[in-house]
Design brief:
Length: 171
């Protein structure tokens, strides 16, 4: 079991009440928890996911309320291709996906991650609009490029490299 730590704005859109949120400790093995935020690009809802340990990130563009309320399926549906795009083997992708077979939701806990997410949201908004909008084939390339952008919270390591370092240390 793992967590997705959702911002208040996303929890409201999901219809989650505070008493429904997971409040216990979770195992810290594997990739661990993610943070998620609802952002708007060109007045369309998008969900930005960011891994707590590696800052690996991706955006689910132009989602509706029903998709947001099934955040676990949305997350897993994007996670596998993102991992593959970053050069993770099919076996490792499946192992990571199994870690998220049971997801719970919780409040955000780390202001550093939220700060990194604000920076990423800024970059996603501008790069997507420069590419022509949310329904352009450049979105996967934008996700890949932002995972290969140095992040101050990682001491200027790329999230994709932090992911590979983490996987090597877990092996």
């Amino acid at each position: 079991m793992q967590l997705i730590r959702c911002t208040a704005k996303l929890r409201k859109e999901m219809g989650l009440k505070d008493h429904e949120l997971f409040q216990d400790d979770i195992p810290t093995s594997g990739l661990g928890a993610w943070h998620a935020n609802l952002i708007y690009i060109n007045r369309r809802k998008c969900v930005l996911f960011t891994n707590d340990k590696t800052l690996l990130n991706f955006i689910a563009p132009d989602v509706n309320r029903e998709e947001i309320r099934s955040l676990d399926r949305l997350f897993i549906g994007y996670l596998r291709p993102i991992l593959a795009e970053e050069g993770i083997s099919a076996e490792e992708c499946e192992e990571i996906a199994r870690e998220y077979s049971e997801l719970r939701y919780a409040k955000t806990t780390d202001k550093s991650i939220l700060g990194s997410m604000n920076e990423l949201a800024f970059h996603y908004k501008h790069r997507i609009m420069d590419a022509g909008g949310l329904h352009k084939p450049e979105i996967p390339g934008i996700i890949h490029s932002l995972n290969n952008m140095p992040m101050g919270a990682l001491e200027f390591v790329f999230p994709s490299e932090a992911l590979r370092q983490h996987l090597r240390s877990e092996a």
